[in-house]
Amino acid sequence: MSAPEERGALTSRPSLYTCAVSVRHAEPEGPWCQEYAAPPARIGPKGKARRGWAEIRDELTGLLGPLLMDPDAASAAEQLHRRFSAMDPPVHHRNIHRVVRGLPLENEARARAFARCLVRTGHGHPSVCVGLVLLARLGEPEDVPYLVTLGVLRDLAGPVVHALDTIDRSAAALISLRDQETKPELHGLVAALGAGDDAAVRAALVALPSTVAPGVARRVAEAAGAARLLRPGAPRAQAGELTARLGWLLFWMTTMRDYTSEILLYEEAVCAYESFAWGAPHLEPTLDHYALVLSAVQELRSGPGSLHGWGPGRREAVIAELAAVLDRAEWRAVVEQDGADAGARWRTAWARRARAQVARDPAGPAEGLRIEVAERDPLDPGTVEARIVVGGRPLVPEVFGRGPANSPEWLLDSGRLRATEESREVQLAEAYCTEGCCGALHVTIRRDGGEVVWSDWRCPAPSPSRPHVREIPELRFDAAEYDAEIARAENDHTWTWPARKAARLIAAGLRDRPELLTRWGAELSWIGTEFRDPDRAVVSLRYAGEDGPPTYFKWYVPGAGTPPENRAADALNRLAAADPRTYGS
User: Fold this and answer.
1) pTM
2) Are 23 and 152 in contact (CB under 8 A)?
């Protein structure tokens, strides 16, 4: 086929934008949507090696560089589509995103014109994706209607949302929610948002289930403008229900199940927490609501939510307002009695421990170094973390963000944070998947005269889309103040519960008497409490295999209900007397 014939064949197909306009007037599952789906990834002819990332990066960089500078945007767009059509196998949109987001843009005006031409006239998925990634960097409000229209094509929904996130968060959120077709509980809210019916939006928001995925929680809050539904002067109708819903959305945004807390990506977090504090007095005093208010206090004291641009005194004011609600007599009564079932009893016990911890230090972590042990609401069980707060800001979510801080047993009971003349490297946090997969946060701690120095950080590079610090500075602390804080944190056991305390005492005994395990050829793998049943203390041991891999043995420590000191002493005596593998069930 000659070049003119090829151009005619390429341009005879309607643009994806024209397709999207048609889809807006048809059923979402109609033929247009299917015909213009993204082409499936192909491996290429049999025996042909797949291209590696370096080859793809170099090819796309060499291709796009001159086109971004071409003053004729339409001609450049046509050249790009023709080149993409000839590629076999085709380039995956994720690789396009990786390359284009890092391209130098010497002439932003030309690059923006090129991007708009690709988005509005492009008739191939890869070329339109290039335009979308460029508009994520260069887009302006006038681009929003075109992007929203393209968003009805399901195969472009992800790239469109990414582009809109930098221009119009609420529009991006609505497309993201519309794409959640497997979640019928969102259909009513999406319909109300699409219709622009504020009353229906509030009703649909109240009707949402309490439990939602973290990313969905953020998108719901963004699309519905949840942060602005409850403000001084706003209608008080549904105030309690809307406050509870906002509280649930904030709660799920702060979970670490998705490695990075979604609250960091929620631009209206400050406004949302202030609205929640304004509406909290309208809540009924129930265990659910008590836990929501208390969780918000925990988050704003030392969690990722405190990293937003609060400004002087605003965060402290919200904490004080929420704490005042918890101090009301009818709210205190909620946690004075144990719950009716095991789950409610455990959750009530957590609320009492966490509230007492907050009450001892109402203002939250002060300037300098502060270690605050935080246990999340058992409704969303997670690790107990020893949060490290420096200058009033939680360190781990600010510089790492792939998992919570390590446990108090790891950082405090072991003495790892103590500063000595000899420097040592300490792991402060590990990714949920494991260090070998997504890394960990390490720092070297040493004493330097009258100061303690944290330096030589080791941390994986953060994703460009995540709001984490790119370079971690050396930190210096007054040695006397540092030693006092570490000693305080090591000796503060008020956050713990009987089974956890027993496990910590057993671990301490094994550190002092390692022969209790070595005599049986065992090593301690980990010790703690069962994830789903925190009243069960567990010792996990590793035995070296003679000709194969090691074997693991779990011992559930008996004696629940007895004092932790007695339970730990009995366990250590039993380890001294017999190999744990002989204990039976």
Assistant:
1) 0.89
2) yes
Spatial CA neighbour of 293 closest among 303, 302, 307, 281: 281
Q: What are phi and psi of 63, to 5 degrees?
A: -75, -45
Other CB atoms within a 10 A radius of the CB of residue 508 amount to 15
Contacts of 205 (CB under 8 A, 6+ apart): 189, 220, 224, 226, 229, 242, 245
Give the CB-side neighbour count of residue 185, counting CA atoms within 13 A: 12
The answer to whether the Cα torsion of 298, 304, 305, 309 is positive or negative is positive
Query: What backbone phi and psi angles, to 5 degrees, belong to 387?
Result: -70, 135
13-17, 213-217, 336-340, 534-538 — which is least confidently predicted? 336-340
Under 8 Å between Cβ of 116 and 73: yes
For 522, the 3-state DSSP assignment is strand
What is each CA distance from 96 to 57, 61, 145, 463, in whole angstroms?
Answer: 8, 10, 23, 16
What gap in Å lies between CA 478 and CA 485, rounded to an integer?
11
Higher pLDDT, 2 or 235: 235
Selected residue with higher pLDDT from 38 and 187? 187
Residue 89: is the preceding peptide bond cis (ω within 30°)?
A: yes
Rounded to whole angstroms, what are the CA distances from 121 to 13, 14, 67, 369?
Answer: 10, 8, 16, 55
Q: What angle do CA 164, 165, 169 make, to 5 degrees?
A: 95
What lies within 8 Å, CB to CB, of 82 at 6+ separation is 6, 7, 10
pLDDT > 70? residue 23: yes
Contact 572, 511 (CB under 8 A): no
Tell me which DSSP letter residue 405 carries: B
The number of CA neighbours under 13 Å toward the Cβ of 232 is 2
- Whether 353 and 494 have beta carbons less than 8 Å apart is answered as yes
Query: pLDDT tens digit string along 479-535?
Result: 999 999 999 999 999 899 999 999 999 999 999 999 999 999 999 999 999 888 888
Q: Which tens digits make up the pLDDT trace of 268-280?
A: 999 999 999 999 9
User: What residue ranges in 329-368 does DSSP mark as E strands?
Assistant: none
β-pair type (551-556, 475-478): unpaired
CA distance 502 to 568: 5
Phi/psi of residue 573, each to 5°? -65, -40
Cα-Cα end-to-end distance for the chain: 76
Our measurement of the distance from residue 229's CA atom to the centroid of its chain's CA atoms, rounded to an integer in Å, reads 24
For residue 371, the cross-strand partners are 388
